[in-house]
Each structure stands twice: as structure tokens, then as C-alpha cells.
Amino acid sequence: MERTTKDRILDEALVMFAEHGYKGTNLRDLAARLELSKSALYKHYESKEDIWNALLDKMEAYYAQRFGSMDNLPPTPDSWEAFQQMMMGMIRFTVHDPQIILTRKLLTIEQFHDARVCKLATKHFLEGTANIYAKVFEGMMEKGLLKKSDPAMLAFSFTPPISALIHLCDREPDRHDEAFERMEAFVQHFIAIHAVK
């Protein structure tokens, strides 16, 4: 499917905002990178803020569709092997998808400058992800796979170590393999502690 000019603008804006931040990105440079005139850019978006908000909407929808959200929960695994496969698949997507990498970088650098980005960072780096896993863990408890406990607290203890290792992959790409080994070991450790024997 061919990308529209609006899509191209948002894709390039994501790259530039992730590289330079909101304040460090100007529309003249964005138009030049797209080989458009500034007036052509304004035919599609009224302002830099309009591009910014459209981009945040697109990023949120992209993540929800491909990773999950409270409205698009992943299926509850039927076994611990299925849980491990699902987990590592979600981690691989999060670490390797180019748009998610740029989104994470943008959220990291802009979370202290923009209230909406601050909320999105909290959602994607902690609370939203923990809420998704709380629902998964609740389903696994109902299936008798997971020891009965508070699924929200369990998810809250499960997500931060993985999130920290994902951020390690962003900061130090040469430690990618080490981070993945630690994530796999952490998932296996979690299973060893919390699985119904």
C-alpha cells in the first residue's frame, strides 16, 4: 500500500522529533527532507503542533494495535511455554520495531517538556504495560497456571525489570544480546516462582 503524503510527513517527523526533540525540529528542515515546500506541508497540517498531535495519535494507535492495550489485550496463554513465546515475541517487537524504537526515544526525551508525552511515557514504560499484564496474569490464574495472588501487584513487579533491559538495548546497542539473555532468564525465573506445580 502506497504511503500518502500525510503519512510520509508523520514518518519523517517521528525521525526528526526523536533526533532533535520538539523544540529542535523546524518545519523548514522537515519540508526539505521530504522534498516539499513549506506551503505544501501546510496543505496537510496547519502547524508544527498539529503535526506533533497527529504523530502522537498515530504512535499510540500503532503501539496499541501491534503490542496491545486495554482495548486490545493479547490472548491469555494456555501454557507456560505459550507465555514465554508470547513474552519474548512482545519483547522482540518492542526492541526491534523501528517505529517503536523512535517512539521510545521521543517519549524519553520529551516526557519532561510535554504533559501528554509525560502521560504516554508513564503508560508505555510502566502503568499501561503493567495493566495489560495484570489482565493476562488474571486469566492465567483462572486457568490454574499461575498461583493465586494480586495480579496487579504481580504485573507491577514483572514489568519494570523488562522495561529497564529494553531501555538498556536503546542506550547500549552492543549489549543487546546480554539484555535478551537476562530477559529470558528473568521470564524463566518468574515462571519458576509463580507457576502452579
Characterize the main sheet: none
Level-1 CATH class name of the largest domain? Mainly Alpha
Question: Which CATH architecture of the largest domain would you pick?
Answer: Orthogonal Bundle
Roughly what fraction of the amino acids lie in strands? under 5%
Give me the CATH fold name of the largest domain.
Tetracycline Repressor, domain 2
CATH homologous superfamily identity of the largest domain? Tetracycline Repressor, domain 2
Number of domains: 2
How would you explain this protein's 3D organization?
With 197 residues, this protein is mainly alpha-helical. Helix content is 75%, strand content 0%. The chain contains 9 helices and no strands. The longest helix is centred in the middle third of the chain and has 28 residues.
Please provide a brief summary of the model.
By secondary structure, the chain is mainly α. The chain is 75% helix and 0% strand. It contains 9 helices and no strands.
Q: What topology emerges from the helices and strands here?
A:
Layout lengths: L4 H16 L6 H8 L3 H7 L3 H19 L13 H17 L1 H13 L4 H28 L8 H21 L4 H19 L3
Index terms:
mainly alpha; 197 residues; single chain; 9 helices; Arc Repressor Mutant, subunit A
